[in-house]
């Protein structure tokens, strides 16, 4: 068996016997144990009682974290004319129409979030096989198909997080950096948990939120007490 490093031994000791903590205690533990040489992302994962093979049990939504994510988000916008200018002024990184479609088809995807005006959807629709698997396909339910591109760009840049249940009913996201103040991470975690809880689909039966785990990029995970996690 490989010998554990001093760093790993220290982390294991910090997490020993710790489980079902309050959100605040979980944040303090994860933040305090982070020891990588870079600013790790604090990540949250929620195991939900849903079967995503059924349309009425799909969980999907968006939440604006009160303190942002600490991540620089590149935004691409499909728009023409005044709306294209509006997107550029709002800070979009890439703006275009057919030219942007051709760039994406060629494999050049220089954005982490994609927004489109409604009239651009026939063009964007051709990119479904490229953008869909990457979770980049604009969706009116998520506010990424809109005429108000300035607000959409600002939201994407300002800490808006999209979530979607994956196979097995797991939803996960980054909710900040370990360099954030504990209070800000707690606020972000509770905002995310609340948004997922409110997104309960009509087809979900029985226990909806089964497990919530908080971790950092290179750290161990710790479970959060479900009562505290879902308390308003």
From TrEMBL:
One of its GO terms (biological process) is translation. One of its GO terms (cellular component) is cytosolic large ribosomal subunit. The lineage of its organism: Bacteria, Pseudomonadati, Pseudomonadota, Alphaproteobacteria, Rhodobacterales. This is Large ribosomal subunit protein uL1. Keywords: Repressor, Ribonucleoprotein, Ribosomal protein, RNA-binding, rRNA-binding, Translation regulation, tRNA-binding. The gene is rplA. Protein L1 is also a translational repressor protein, it controls the translation of the L11 operon by binding to its mRNA. Binds directly to 23S rRNA. The L1 stalk is quite mobile in the ribosome, and is involved in E site tRNA release. Belongs to the universal ribosomal protein uL1 family. PANTHER family: 54S RIBOSOMAL PROTEIN L1, MITOCHONDRIAL, LARGE RIBOSOMAL SUBUNIT PROTEIN UL1M. CDD domains: Ribosomal_L1.
């Amino acid at each position: 068996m490989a010998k554990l490093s001093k760093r790993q031994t220290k982390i294991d000791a910090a997490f020993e016997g710790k489980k079902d903590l309050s959100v605040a205690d979980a944040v303090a533990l994860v933040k305090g144990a982070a020891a990588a040489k870079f600013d790790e992302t604090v990540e949250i994962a929620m195991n939900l009682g849903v079967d995503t093979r059924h349309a009425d049990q799909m969980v999907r939504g968006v939440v604006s974290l009160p303190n942002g994510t600490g991540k620089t988000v590149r935004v691409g916008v499909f728009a023409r004319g005044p709306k294209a200018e509006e997107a550029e002024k709002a800070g979009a990184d890439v703006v275009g129409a057919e030219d942007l479609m051709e760039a994406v088809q060629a494999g050049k995807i220089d954005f982490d979030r994609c927004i489109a005006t409604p009239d651009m959807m026939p063009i964007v629709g051709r990119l479904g096989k490229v953008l869909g698997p990457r979770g980049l396909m604009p969706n009116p339910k998520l506010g990424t198909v809109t005429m108000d591109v300035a607000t959409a760009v600002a939201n994407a840049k300002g800490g808006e997080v999209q979530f979607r249940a994956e196979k097995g009913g797991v939803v996960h996201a980054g909710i900040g950096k370990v360099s954030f103040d504990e209070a800000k991470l707690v606020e972000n975690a509770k905002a995310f948990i609340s948004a997922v809880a409110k997104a309960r689909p009509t087809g979900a039966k029985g226990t909806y939120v089964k497990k919530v785990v908080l971790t950092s990029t290179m750290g161990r995970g710790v479970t959060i007490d479900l009562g505290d996690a879902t308390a308003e």
